[in-house]
Input
Amino acid sequence: MLKIHHYAMEVVNILLVKEFYINMLGFVEDEKVEFKGEEILFLRNGDFLLELIKVKQEGFPQQNVHLCFETESINDIMEKFSKAGISALEGPYTLKNGWKTVFYIGNAKEILEFIEP
Output
């Protein structure tokens, strides 16, 4: 049986991204690692680990991926982002199965999806 250990993201400004995930999404700093000259920071939210890898230059290729978080209340997420002056990229939507979802862009240009099953 496999389970997800972490999601990794290459970022230019590791401190800016760290503050976003701590302040907006309740992550905590878990561990700092240096590997082959790369600065790596792990953030934790419960059992979920987010690995931030610092890159040295702007313009590195962005992949078409998104990070999805399950939440008990889409409305709470939307209110928190609204208070921070961050508008939704897409949504909110209600899917045919009743799930609610909304998308935002994080400050590392990553797409964040929040889903309320």
